Amino acid sequence: MKATGIVVEYNPFHNGHLYHARQSKIETGADVIIAVMSGQFLQRGEPAFADKWTRTEMALLNGIDIVIELPYVYATAQASDFAKGAIALLSAIGCESFCFGSEEGAIHPFLRTYELLNGQREQYEQKIHEAVQTGISYPKAMNRAYNALTGNSDGYADLTQPNNILGYHYIDEAKKMGSPMSPHTIQRIAANYHDPIDKGLTIASATGIRQAFFEEGSMKEIANYMPVPSLLSLQEFNRQYHAFGSWEQFYPMLRYSILKERPAQLKRFSEVTEGIENLIFEAAAKEHEFEGFIGRVKSKRFTRTRIQRMLTHIYTGFTWDQLRSFQTPSYLRLLGMSEKGKRYLNQQKKNMGLPLISRAANLTDPMGKLDIHASSMYLLGIGAKDLKKEFTSPPLYFG
């Protein structure tokens, strides 16, 4: 059986994701589609809208064959480390290819970009360093360095676009690892990453869907943009917890996590740097709501995403020392599978590059224990009564 891999968050699973999954199978000629999915906290430094089991259910009900979890250390990282973890897992589980959605829509510009940056990596890194020293954010520094090397010529991937950036890093990491997986991409359609919903369309960004729900507080506002199974899964999650994941929901616990420390102690948490710990502490002391808090802290140098990743690590207690101790994923955590996915795993079990783990009790190394802890902190923030769901939730199976 031929497998292709996709890297996802499904926050939540919408019609655009369904299109991506179906087109990925067509593009690669795969029999099985495997999703590496972020767990309870996401790459932009946010709690997931719904927990990982609900999002796994959405995936399986909409044609995904296997869902494996991207460990916390990679799921909440900046783009290159996010890609490093995801590509390592897809390679370990035996995918012959991977397919990502992009604003570019064609693979050749990404391959040309890789050849350019790989051939001038030292010069590229130096230009980024120089740009950062001027006080601009890291993403803007990367773009300035990239434009200096390309001369704004045609034929290269546009690395100002969020999905293009991730796509480039997927290819870069696959090349670094010497992975035999072939890269593919499909055009992102109808809605860009940050776009609000357009009531004349049936495809919207996950950002737009979440925004519409939180503004209106009604499933009716988002029903047209999601497959029916996804909507039903969200309704069940809401029935169980009476809330969805957001920093507004988590802010009382986050605020406590910040204020119980002295400002100097906040520096030990991952990504907290350059004296921003003082500003974070002062903002938490003054602001009763998350938007007021984040408004005090973000700046041209410290983007909202960068700050939110810091906050995620403060909330979960993830330190610089822990971050530096992890080099590569150490397991494949199975969250769910279809009947076809089960057959694939049985076929591949002797050839996998990492151990396949289906029970939280077997996550005994530091990376696995971190995933369990982060999940408990998510459940605490969402108001769950049972914080041990990791141990009572076997992989989902839809035969």
Write up this protein.
- The model has no long low-confidence stretch (mean pLDDT 93).
- With 399 residues, the chain is of the alpha/beta class.
- It has 19 helices and eight strands.
- The chain has two domains: 3-106 and 186-245 and 327-398, Rossmann fold (3-Layer(aba) Sandwich); 247-324, no CATH class.
- Belongs to the TmcAL family.
- It is found in: Cytoplasm.
CATH-defined fold name of the largest domain: Rossmann fold
Q: List the helices and strands in order.
A: EHEHEHHEHHHHEHHHHHHHHEHEHHE
The secondary structure category is alpha/beta
Average pLDDT score: 93
Portion in helices: 40-55%
For the largest beta-sheet, the strand count, sense and barrel status come to:
8 strands, mixed
Number of strands: 8
What's the multimeric state? single chain
Q: From the alpha-carbon coordinates, what is the Rg to the nearest angstrom?
A: 20 Å
Number of domains: 2
Can you tell me the overall shape? globular
SSE arrangement:
Blueprint: E1 3-8, H1 15-28, E2 32-38, H2 52-61, E3 66-70, H3 72-75, H4 79-92, E4 97-102, H5 108-119, H6 121-132, H7 138-150, H8 162-177, E5 182-187, H9 206-216, H10 228-241, H11 247-259, H12 263-266, H13 276-286, H14 290-297, H15 304-316, H16 320-325, E6 332-338, H17 339-348, E7 356-357, H18 366-382, H19 389-392, E8 396-398
Parallel strand pairs: 1-2, 1-4, 2-3, 4-5, 6-7, 6-8
Antiparallel strand pairs: 3-6
Helix pairs in contact: 2-10, 4-8, 5-8, 6-7, 11-15, 13-14
Protein name: tRNA(Met) cytidine acetate ligase
EC number: 6.3.4.-
InterPro entries: Rossmann-like_a/b/a_fold, tRNA(Met)_cyd_acetate_ligase
